[in-house]
Amino acid sequence: MDTEEFRLYGKQMVDFMADYMHNIRNHRVLPQISPGYVRDLVPEQAPEEGEPWEEVFKDIQRVVLPGVVHWNSPRFHSYFPAGNSFPAICAEMLSGVFCNIGFSWSASPASTDLEMVMLDWLGKMVQLPQEFLFSSNGPGGGVVQAHCSVEKAGLLSGLTCRLLPTDAAFSLQGDILQAAIDEDRTQGKIPFFVVGTLGTTNSCAFDNIEKLGEVCKKENLWFHIDAAYAGAAFICPEFRYLLNGVEYADSFLLCPAKWLLTNHDCCAMWVKDRENILKPFSIMHAYLKEDLEVETLNYRHWGIPCGRKFRSLKMWFVFRLFGVRGLQTYIRKHVRLAHEFENLARNDNRFEVLFPVVLGVVCFRLKGSEVQNEEMLRVINKRGKIALKSSRMRSHNLYFIRFVVCGKDTESEDIVFSWREISLAANNVLNPKVVGDKSETF
Fold first, then answer.
1. 3-state secondary structure of 283
2. How far apart are CA 108 and CA 120, in angstroms?
3. Sheet harboring 141-145: ordered strands across?
């Protein structure tokens, strides 16, 4: 593919992407394929000679699309938002053409400097304390890196990860943390790192970070706050109170890829003292030696990967093209739509909403057995017109279904459509003799 062919085929691909996003509601959200389906559609070996672009482009429809879960769909309600937008896609294209591997400042000055500025921009948007910002000229700062679950991080590090019980609102409180610290120490263990969560994955619950922070400060433990999903909402003044207590944190994380329209992967973390990260991760091979090592910041020292993508471009494009007000409007819309769904569920006496709806997550279930709820979810996802996931509160052995407002272009009509799918599935489960077991007849 030469330059002129790239111009032609690139425009064709952009048209395909634009059409895909514009017509996203026409796609079944969940695919109808079996594991390994691709092997039946492609050769056993790579071609010896290059194939024409037309054949490759044709196979997007034939091979790829049948197995795509349409995370962009306004009727995708699983997990958390994928945070996609056209500005972020444009930035990804530009990152791909630059092909910068930003492991040091000299390897990609624009990548390093823009990332530092974007982390300050976002930190100011959520009103982080000055100590977390590069602009404070102190030891703090931020980095864009891949997100990892806390439990997986514990497995990778070989450390014991202790899960603590929560209160009736599924919030971790300071007295529970203090008791666990005391118990661990009496057993000869050394607690040193505490994670408080704002917007838990299961139920979007909020730990009491003020009380947790007070305990961590008294006991000299590192306090990390994980706000991967909910953190984006803190750019809205009415939700900023949820971050009260962040001044106690040693590190703080939120993922713009989840709820700030920057698409995967883009996860931001700030620390008050970056030396605590640089010391264990620094590598100084001769071929990595920098003439400006002291004067510059080298992001390869900030985490496990050495090579790094130009992710800050996505943040720069999105923040400039949407503006803070545009992003606030987007988040408020999602919260409003979540309350619309909450009202539909509360007004149907077959269902119950289990937890207060604070942001864009609604946890609900049929007022029936776990088996009935599992069957309802199976019917919903088998039909594939919407996508939902279940969860369970381990401490209460409570099974429920999560409804998350995910798509950028989700509207009230999509909430009503999704509720109709849920209601029909409930009819199928609760009145099988009336509706029958053939879900395709709905």
1. coil
2. 19
3. 141-145, 267-271, 251-254, 222-226, 193-197
Which segments of 213-292 are extended strands (E)?
222-226, 251-254, 267-271
Report the amino acid identity of residue 223: F
- Partners of residue 193 on adjacent β-strands: 222
Phi, psi of 321 (to 5 degrees): -80, -35
The pTM (predicted TM-score) of the whole model is: 0.91
Q: Residue 35 and residue 176: Cα distance in Å, rounded?
A: 44
Helix count and strand count (H, E) for the chain: 13, 9
Catalytic residue among 27, 147, 264, 396: 147
φ/ψ bin of 371: left (φ > 0), alpha (ψ from -120 to 50), beta (otherwise): alpha
* C-alpha span between 416 and 422 (Å, rounded): 10
| Calpha distance 230→126 (Å, rounded) | 11
Q: How many CB atoms lie within 10 A of CB 242?
A: 19
User: Token digits for 316?
Assistant: 């720069």
Tens of pLDDT, residue by residue over 404-430, are: 999 999 999 999 999 999 999 999 999
Q: Are 207 and 302 contacting, i.e. CB atoms less than 8 angstroms apart?
A: no
Residue carrying structure tokens 């919903």: 380
**Contact between 372 and 428 (Cβ < 8 Å):** no
The CA distance from 406 to 22, in Å, is 16
Catalytic: 339?
Answer: no
pLDDT digit string, tens, across residues 221-256: 999 999 999 999 999 999 999 999 999 999 999 999
